[in-house]
């Protein structure tokens, strides 16, 4: 007789997908992969922060059972836009968590910033597969999130291209055989700029990434290279590694995304064109492989790939992130950076003030790693308040 477990359909089919942050750059690329999958995936729930019409249009197209808008002021507009569809609507921070709680086998975590932490935690606790794009969750609460995933039986599959690359080539069964991993960085739009030139960089210049089309916040993070600093912390939580085993290498073409060096001298890497649909397809289908409508890699056409060491003098955010990891103040690093990037995008401070504000905030916070989610939110609020007061002074 077969065991009952074998004949019962799994409750959580990985083919049903919830997207947290559906209207963003990762959200849209995910829906593109879903649309091209020939009906392999069904959308369970979708969320957005402000854009009601975009969210409603996606809901009408993909027919989820539930949609949530982060800003509660838009609740009535969302309900109106969905009238007659039978799709349930929610609003506010609790509705984002409710979306994550819907019985989808896969949750794509693609909200930007610590704003995505509560919903991602909820998905981890109920044992979903989490296709994780939101790196700020791991920077602010890496230990808590990975522990919750383990306890809940959830699987975290990185969508961030470098970590997805490592996920594909890291021998998880033999971590002791790994000497070092390398995250590549494009170097961003200011890779060759002097500090003097960067001083007058505008938000428009900073969000114009040479290789990737991404949301505004991560684009600025790429320009300061804080993105790679956050990714260093992300890698630390995703893989059984010491901080010293994680290296950063500038690779302007963004073709090689991550490398794993083994003790015998072998180096395994993952390569692909810079298109997020590749790591998204990998995370959705793993261990299967999905057709993705991406341009195939043609190395003969590319001819050369170049690499250089990162310059931590000009891109101090990298060193700040490493220090924050060593000192257990990564919540503050992330919070101060979120506040400073917002101020920069609003034209209130200069480009170089971003890293300066983060550094000055770190100098003022206590080195106590939070042990509960409440403590994370407390530490986050404290660091934001410190950063805001520093930002006011810079802007004055
Ligand atoms: P984006 O700004 O394009 O989209 C963000 C999404 O989150 C939108 O749907 C928006 O409505 C929603 N959102 C914004 N603020 C919110 C809030 N306070 N509460 C609830 N929802 C909110 O961002 P993105 O580029 O898609 O990036 C999303 C995440 O993925 C980020 O953490 C980023 O670092 C990570 N990531 C992005 C890329 C990329 O190529 N875009 C690559 C790797 C990692
Ligand atoms: Mg990345």
What does this structure look like?
The protein is 47% helix and 14% strand. With 396 residues, the protein is an alpha/beta fold. The protein folds into two domains: 15-159, NAD(P)-binding Rossmann-like Domain (Rossmann fold, 3-Layer(aba) Sandwich); 174-273 and 300-395, RNA polymerase sigma factor, region 2, helix turn helix motif (Rna Polymerase Sigma Factor, Chain: A, Orthogonal Bundle). The protein has a seven-stranded parallel beta sheet with strand order 4-3-2-1-5-6-7, sandwiched between helices. Strand 3 (66-69), helix 4 and strand 4 form a beta-alpha-beta unit. The radius of gyration is 21 Å and the shape is globular. It binds nicotinamide-adenine-dinucleotide and magnesium ion (MG). Nicotinamide-adenine-dinucleotide (NAD) binds next to helix 2 and helix 7.
Task: Tag the structure with descriptive keywords.
47% helix, binds nicotinamide-adenine-dinucleotide, seven-stranded parallel β-sheet, binds magnesium ion, Rna Polymerase Sigma Factor, Chain: A, Rossmann fold, 396 residues, globular, 2 domains, alpha/beta
């Amino acid at each position: 007789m077969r065991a009952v477990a074998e004949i019962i359909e799994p409750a959580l089919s990985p083919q049903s997908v919830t997207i947290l942050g559906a209207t963003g750059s990762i959200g849209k690329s995910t829906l593109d992969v879903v649309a091209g999958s020939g009906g392999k995936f069904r959308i369970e729930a979708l969320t957005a922060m402000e854009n009601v019409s975009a969210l409603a249009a996606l809901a009408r197209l993909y027919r989820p059972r539930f949609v949530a808008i982060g800003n509660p002021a838009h609740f009535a507009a969302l309900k109106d836009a969905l009238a007659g569809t039978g799709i349930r609507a929610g609003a506010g921070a609790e509705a984002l968590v409710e979306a994550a709680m819907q019985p989808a086998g896969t949750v794509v975590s693609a909200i930007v910033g610590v704003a995505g932490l509560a919903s991602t935690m909820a998905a981890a606790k109920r044992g979903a597969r989490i296709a994780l794009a939101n790196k700020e969750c791991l920077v602010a609460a890496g230990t808590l999130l990975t522990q919750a995933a383990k306890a809940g039986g959830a699987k975290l599959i990185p969508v961030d291209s470098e970590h997805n690359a490592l996920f594909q080539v890291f021998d998880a069964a033999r971590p002791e055989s790994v000497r070092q991993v390398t995250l590549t960085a494009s170097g961003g739009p200011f890779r060759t700029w002097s500090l003097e030139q960067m001083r007058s960089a505008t938000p428009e210049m900073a969000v114009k990434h040479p290789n990737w089309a991404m949301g505004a916040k991560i684009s600025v993070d790429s320009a300061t290279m804080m993105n790679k600093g956050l990714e260093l912390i992300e890698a630390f939580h995703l893989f059984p590694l010491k901080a010293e085993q994680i290296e950063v290498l500038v690779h302007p073409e963004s073709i090689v995304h991550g490398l794993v060096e083994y003790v015998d001298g072998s180096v395994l890497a993952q390569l692909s064109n810079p298109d997020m649909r590749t790591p998204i397809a990998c995370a959705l289908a793993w261990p299967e492989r999905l057709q993705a409508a991406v341009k195939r890699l043609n190395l003969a056409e590319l001819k050369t790939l170049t690499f250089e060491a990162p310059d931590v003098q000009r891109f101090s955010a990298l060193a700040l992130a490493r220090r924050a990891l060593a000192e257990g103040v990564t919540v503050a690093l992330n919070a101060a950076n979120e506040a400073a990037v917002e101020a920069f995008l609003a034209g209130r401070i200069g480009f170089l003030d971003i890293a300066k504000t983060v550094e000055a905030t770190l100098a003022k916070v206590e080195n106590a790693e939070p042990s509960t989610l409440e403590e994370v939110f407390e530490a986050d609020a404290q660091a934001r308040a410190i950063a805001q007061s520093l930002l006011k002074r810079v802007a004055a």
